[in-house]
Amino acid sequence: MSSGQKTVSVFLMLISSMLVLILGLYVSWPIWAWPVAVVLLGASWAGATVAASRANRGKPVSDTVTAPPVPDVERRELSVRDVALPSSLEDYDFLLSATVRWWPEKPYAQETGTHHGGLAVEAILARARDITAGRDPFRSSLVQHELSGALAEMQPDRSGHVRSMALDVVLRLSEEDQTRLDRLAAIRKDEELWEHERKWEQSRRAYLGDDVLRDTGRAVVWWLAKNDDQVAKTVGDIGLLAQLTSAANNEQVAEPFRHLVPDAFTEAPAAETPHGPADLFTDFMQGLGFKPGADDCMMVADQVAMAIKEKNPEAAEEIRKRFAPPDEGAHGDKDRDGEGDGKGDGDGDDPDESSTDIGPVTEE
């Protein structure tokens, strides 16, 4: 007897027992009738079971129908390591590592000439590339979690041969790129901080220069507010504020406040007496390397003296003396003295002799 037949026999026996029980209660059997009914019911079911077993002994076992086993679905896995994927920043690639799991889209179909693993890996990389191409490389850890969620679902590839997913997703940057990005981030932060500090400094300078230190009155009011209305202290600092205001505006201390800054105004030094024409010419000749008494120096001095004689005879004579030889200068002085003495005596010398004596003096 098969297991199915046994189950049916037990089920029928229970139903029969319930019917006998209901019938006995309905007709009010006496007490002795209940054991008799149970014995008769058991004997009848025992006989029926034995008869069914004998009837099935002659049948072959092959007549029993069994369902064929269901074949296991093909599952495969591949590991990929440090596959470069583009980011939103040129020349900075993500490196992807993951375990690719797939199964054929039609598990029971006989397909030849198809590498399911390659199709699965290509499908996973295409899905990952669509995400990383628009992501910032500064956020690699965040993009890694995004990829883990996006690739965790089995999806068919574009050819329809396999379904694939990715596990254990790791996304990172190379050590060199990570170092460069860290330096860029630090420089960008420093530059931003410096820009804010520069703007703050410009604003402060504009506030002080264009408003507070525009004149002494504004500076006094500002200083009074800064010192919590301490009038005595502010009055004592007016002189200092006047100097500060004048320095900020590149001008002298205003007239109403000069008595508060006595040391700021000192007497101007006396102007030096300028050199005369002869002194200037002497400096010029010395700068050119001419030496007094030299022929070339005397020639130049005589020409200059002749040129300025009508306008400034004193300067012309002084130039002649400075650049003439010492003996000639002394001789010229003696001649002038002698000429003066002759004129003073008033004796009637010959006019020709007088002109002869004067000649060397007036010769140009």
* Count of all domains: 4
Main beta sheet: 4 strands, antiparallel
CATH hierarchy, class of the largest domain? Alpha Beta
Q: How many DSSP-defined strands?
A: 4
Percent range for β-strand residues: 5-15%
Which key phrases capture this entry?
disordered C terminus; elongated; 364 residues; 4 domains; 13 helices; Tetrahydropterin Synthase, Chain A; 9% strand; alpha+beta; four-stranded antiparallel beta sheet
Explain this structure.
- It is a single chain.
- With 364 residues, the protein is an alpha+beta fold.
- The protein folds into four domains: 3-63; 76-173, Tetrahydropterin Synthase, Chain A, CATH 3.30.479; 213-264, no CATH class; 277-362, no CATH class.
- Helix content is 59%, strand content 9%.
- It is built from 13 helices and four strands.
- The protein has helices at residues 3-27, 33-57, 116-132, 140-150, 175-212, 216-226, 231-236, 238-248, 277-288, 295-308, 313-323, 326-345, 351-362; strands at 76-85, 94-104, 155-156, 162-172.
- It has a four-stranded antiparallel sheet with strand order 1-2-4-3.
- Helix 10 (295-308) runs antiparallel to helix 11 (313-323).
- The radius of gyration is 64 Å and the shape is elongated.
- The model is unreliable at 61-65 and 329-364 (pLDDT under 50).
